[in-house]
Amino acid sequence: MQTNQVGWRVDASCRDADPDGLFVRGAEQNRAKAVCMGCPVRTECLAEALDGRINFGVWGGMTERERRALLRRRPDVTSWTDLLEAAKRDALAAAAG
């Protein structure tokens, strides 16, 4: 699996989906978020949206409202990519025992 800044998109579950389906409002956002469940690059996608302060669409399983709330709760984070990748590594190491 590719995880660099550009390459992670080729592994995204939404790569063949209609992009308009990821930039929706209201209850339709739940359908868009469902595409993210189980996506192998969900962490990379979310990190890009948070680091880039992307204001629209569902990214990494979070709506723009959810991302804004997270950014307000954690103004101390300077790199979401670093934080989320470290958390992902820790979780995988813990699961491996």
TrEMBL record:
Transmembrane segments: none annotated. It holds the Pfam family Whib. Keywords: 4Fe-4S, Cytoplasm, Disulfide bond, DNA-binding, Iron, Iron-sulfur, Metal-binding, Transcription, Transcription regulation. GO terms for cellular component: cytoplasm. It is found in: Cytoplasm. Its cofactor is [4Fe-4S] cluster. InterPro entries: 4FE4S_WBL, Whib. PANTHER family: TRANSCRIPTIONAL REGULATOR WHIB4, TRANSCRIPTIONAL REGULATOR WHID-RELATED. Acts as a transcriptional regulator. Probably redox-responsive. The apo- but not holo-form probably binds DNA. This is Transcriptional regulator WhiB. It comes from Amycolatopsis echigonensis. The lineage of its organism: Bacteria, Bacillati, Actinomycetota, Actinomycetes, Pseudonocardiales. The gene is whiB.
